[in-house]
Amino acid sequence: MDKKDIAAALEEIGTLLDLAGENPFKVRAYQNAARAIEQIPGNLDDAVVSGKLREVKGIGEGISQKIAELHATGSLGYLDELRAKIEPGLLEMLKIHGLGPKRIRLIRETLGITTLGELEYACKENRLKLLEGFGEKLQENVLRGIEDLKKYKDRHLWVEAHHAAEQVITLLGGVRGVSDPQAAGSLRRCRETVGDIDVLAAVEPKDRARVAAALTGSKLAASVIGSGDTKVSFRTPHGLGCDVRMITRAEYPYTLHHLTGSKDHNAAMRGRAQKLGFKMNEYGLYKGERLVPCASEDEIFAALKLQYIPPELRENMGEIEAAESDAIPALLQKDDLLGVMHVHTSWSDGRNPLDEMVRAAKDLGFSYVGIADHSRSAAYAGGLSPERVREQRKEVRAAEDRIGVRVLFGIESDILPDGSLDYDKKTLDLFDFVIGSVHSKFNMERGEMTRRILKAMEDPHLSMVGHLTGRLLLAREPYEVDQEVVLHAAARFGVVMELNANPNRLDLDWRILRQAAGLGVLVSINPDAHEVEGLSDTFLGVGIARKGWLSAKDVLNTRSAKEALERMKRN
Which residues of 524-533 are buried (b: 16+ CB within 10 A; e: fewer)? Predict the structure, then answer.
């Protein structure tokens, strides 16, 4: 298990203990240990083997032993025991915004509720609002959260599916007789959420029984759904369904294309093949009964007189027509990104100090870093008062000299309900750039919310609009806002639009990115990082940008720091 997995396990222990009503000090001990693990530089191997875990602040003897067990075996008996003691329905309730362990424990102890169905019934009977500290508004939010859970059942964030698929691919890569294991399906197309995982591998028939046994016998297969001559299906420990397809080397390109494309893309490709006198299916491309040999997907597209269509674009949303006329652009690459913007530090709600965030960004290869902590209205997130803004500005300038990388001084300013930004002009003048984001009053009517954001865009201090729709994938629907009107205003005012690359947001939605580029609106791919590990989310945003047909010229942080600053200046 890596650091993230172990930190997640410790965090889960803390949550389960809290649900069980354990001593708050014990709960906090596990939560603090989870944070401490994430801060350890490099991997955990050295610290575990040498016994230096005990030297890490926040990790005692007992927790150190549990970390060692997790690291060595990938499981922990103590965690399994805790899970068995807590009703599964209470764990589901944790996914509802506004319900933490203490409130769930109160619901359990007062109303005897242990399932989502019982909780929904209690809300509809107006019983939840009568509990101490609840009220009608929270009851409505809980009911809405239950509806969202039903809607998003069996969906997973892209990053979770990617992590699980990488584990399967790594396992397959170590099995004799397997070549080219690769993810396909919606995961390869970079859809923001994924239902299940499709993995393809070239395996000759004589080796398939052995490969299937390696899969079904691994810890990755928490439960086996089926195992046949060409496919193994199982569910991972985190509940994701996974299908591993084993096909011959000759079939591989055709099957990879078929399993990658959306149904609509595949149907359109078959239609094109038919018009050109071919027959196309998941096993080959045929002229009459003769297989047209293709060693790669590139050759399949070439045989159909098409420019190569990158996997991210295969949604039947104009990519085939563009490929006919060689009009698919050169899509953004990870190496095109020069800087990282929208980085939080411990000055507000970030976990790491400013210097650590800047050094980590430099280590990732970025030549500049845009610090953007929260503004004063975000008191819940340690938002900066005007006095602290001035203090941080000095610290940012000093960090730039200490670390040897350009540091831009910015702020994530709340767009207040009336559309104003969160500081006076004198304070706003101090920043190199200002990101304006909506963090409150999400229930505004569509026109009112749109006017709120447009008003903020009229302020010449505003450089960029952050996470335009406020959505949290699989957790919170976007608030009502006319995105097209906002994009047209961005083009008119020269405002940059953020593609928030946090895997829980991925906002702007990829479906509107192409329109933004068409209007000449620059997009900045920002991680909204609150810890060192979050900086890497910037690269996750590249997949979404590619899915939205963006090239390097469409993205702000492919420019140098000087060019980016000039572009963010407003007339």
Answer: bbbbbbbbbb
Residues 6+ apart with CB under 8 A from 525: 337, 499, 501, 538, 541, 542, 545, 555, 557
493 token code pair: 């005012």
Model pTM above 0.70: yes
What type of residue is 321? E
CA–CA distance, 334 with 525 (Å, rounded to integer): 11
Question: Is 3-151 a CATH 3.40.440.10 domain?
Answer: no
**Structure tokens, 212:** 């299937």
Distance, CA of 149 to CA of 151 (rounded, Å): 5
Strands 433-437 and 406-414: parallel
pLDDT tens per residue across span 304-348: 999 999 999 999 999 999 999 999 999 999 999 999 999 999 999
pLDDT of 571 > 60? The answer is no
Q: Is 289 helix (H, G, I), strand (E, B) or coil?
A: coil
Fold of 253-324: Beta Polymerase; domain 3 (3.30.210)
Least reliable range by pLDDT among 69-73, 274-278, 431-435: 69-73
CATH architecture of the domain 334-568 equals Alpha-Beta Barrel (3.20)
Count CB atoms within 10 A of the CB of residue 28. Answer: 14
Average pLDDT of span 38-44: 73
Give me the pLDDT at residue 376, please. 94
Instruction: Give the position of tokens 């865009």.
Output: 457
Burial of 464 (0-12, 13-18, 19+ CB in 10 A): buried
